[in-house]
Design a protein that fits this description.
The protein is of the alpha+beta class. The protein is built from 3 helices and 15 strands.
C-alpha cells in the first residue's frame, strides 16, 4: 500500500498533462479496487504460505491445575480442538502464564485435564548465612528429557551474586545488585543439553524471602503418549521464536 502511494505520488506530475483527467481517475479507481480484491482473495494460507500457530500444555505442580495455552490472537481448527470456540483471555498477572524470551505472552487459555507427568528433581543443597548474606545452592534435574528451563522471580527480588553451572553472571553496575531494576520477572532460560542438570549458586540479602518460579518444558507435545492431538494440516506450521508444541511443568523454589 505504501509503495503504491509513493508510485502514484511520483506519477502526479505526469498525469497532470493528461486530457480527460476525470475519466482517468475513474479508470485508476476501478483498477486499484480490482487489485485490492484480488490480493484479498489470494491472502489465505496454503501449503506454500502456511499459517503459523501455537499450543502449549502447562501443569502447575503446586495447584495440580492444568491449562492449554496459545500465543495466537486468532484461533484456527487445530488450536480449537482443545481451546474450543470461546477460550479465556490470558492475563499478564496470571502466575501460571509466562512470556517468551522475546516478550510474547499467551493470548488465550482453557482449563485442561491434569496429565501424569514426571516432575524435575529440585534440591536446595546449601543454605548458610555468612555475615549479612545468605548463600544458597540449588540443583535442578529433569526426569523427562526437558529441552529448556525458564526461571522467573519478582523484579523486587535482589540477587547480589549468581553462578549458573560454574559461570558467574556479572553484577549490574550502579548498586552492585544482579539484574537490578528489572522491568520483567524473567531471570534466564537454560537450554538443556544431554539432560545436563542446572546448578545455581546464589548470594542473597539475609532477610529476603526469595521465590523463584521454574517452568520446565519439553518439545514433545505432538508425540507425547498422554496427548492425542490431531496433526496440523498441510497449510499450517509451528509458530517460530516462541515456546511451542511444548509440555510445561511449573514449580516454585522457595528460600525463606
Amino acid at each position: 500500500g505504501v509503495l503504491i502511494a509513493l508510485v502514484f505520488g511520483l506519477l502526479i506530475p505526469v498525469i497532470g498533462f493528461f486530457k480527460h483527467k476525470r475519466r482517468w481517475s475513474v479508470i485508476l479507481l476501478i483498477v486499484g479496487t480490482t487489485i485490492f480484491i484480488m490480493a484479498n482473495f489470494r491472502s489465505g494460507f496454503n501449503e506454500t504460505q502456511p499459517k503459523p500457530n501455537s499450543l502449549v500444555y502447562i501443569l502447575d505442580a503446586e495447584t495440580n491445575k492444568a491449562r492449554w495455552a496459545t500465543y495466537d490472537k486468532k484461533l484456527d481448527d487445530w488450536t480449537k480442538q482443545v481451546l474450543g470456540e470461546d477460550p479465556n483471555e490470558s492475563s499478564a498477572n496470571d502466575e501460571m502464564m509466562f512470556s517468551s524470551k522475546y516478550g510474547s505472552g499467551f493470548a488465550f487459555y482453557r482449563e485442561a485435564e491434569r496429565k501424569s507427568l514426571e516432575y524435575p528433581d529440585i534440591e536446595v543443597y546449601k543454605d548458610s548465612i555468612i555475615g549479612d548474606k545468605r548463600h544458597c545452592s540449588i540443583y535442578i534435574e529433569s526426569n523427562r528429557g526437558a529441552n529448556r528451563m525458564d526461571l522467573y522471580a519478582d523484579p523486587q527480588m535482589v540477587f547480589e551474586s549468581m553462578v549458573i553451572n560454574g559461570i558467574e553472571i556479572k553484577e549490574d553496575g550502579k548498586m552492585g545488585y544482579l539484574l537490578n531494576n528489572r522491568t520483567s520477572d524473567r531471570l534466564f532460560t537454560y537450554y538443556v543439553s544431554d539432560n545436563d542438570p542446572l546448578d545455581i549458586q546464589l548470594v542473597l540479602p539475609q532477610d529476603q524471602i526469595t521465590r523463584i518460579s521454574l517452568f520446565e518444558s519439553s518439545n514433545d507435545l505432538l508425540s507425547g503418549r498422554n496427548f492425542n492431538l490431531k496433526p496440523r494440516s498441510d497449510d499450517m506450521i509451528p509458530k517460530p521464536f516462541v515456546l511451542n508444541d511444548a509440555i510445561t511443568i511449573k514449580q516454585s523454589i522457595l528460600i525463606e
